[in-house]
Design a protein that fits this description.
This protein has about 240 residues and is α+β, with helices and mostly antiparallel strands. The protein has six helices and eight strands. InterPro entries: Blinkin, Knl1_RWD_C.
Length: about 240
Amino acid sequence: RELSEMDAEDERDLAEMEELKKTERACLEILKKYDFTEWELMEWSEQQAVFNFLYDSVTLTVVFGPPADGEFFAARPSRSIISLDFESFLDEEQAPPSSCLVQRLIFQFLESQGSWQEKCPTLHYLPQALFDISLVVNRCKILGEELEFLERWGAKFHLLETDVKNTEVKLVFSSSAAFAKFELTLALSPDYPSAALPFSVQTHIGNIGEKEIAAVLSSVPVGHHYLKRVVFSIHQNLLQGPR
């Protein structure tokens, strides 16, 4: 008799596991509809879900609570969410400056949003939260790639040095043809590249200063690869010949 009771219990456990798997599959289908692949699902259990972003350097742990009254997610009663915790796994000592900048901007965004648990009280809100985070991660990731490009190929555009400090990028331009050397410092934020960047200029040689840089920057539309296009435009308009 005990054996059959144990069998029945095993079957119940199996059925429950199968149900959980079905729920997970249904949740994943809904999440995939947002068509953003900036997150990777590492775990989905009865207790929590774990998502990784940006080459596993940012982790989001979502802890589930009891079912939410009258709300459904993936055709089942929606779960309440007790907490959403973000953690950085970037080794700042070893990582290149561009990666550190990207990480800082992402966490600046995450902290600027106030309580994520208030924004995301139940599973129903999770896809939108993942979408919002993915959008910022995607933009910041592209910014990191732009910085790496400028560090590698900057000399082609009279860019002598690219220096990252906190959330600022200092670009040192030098051109003998234009008899000019100056530093352009740009202040970056998680909104990049959807807004013009605050900047300052320090002139070392020649007469290229804030007025000349402001004129060039105002002619570069914000959007995809904004930083690269700013550098191209400065090179094209200011550093080709005598001024």
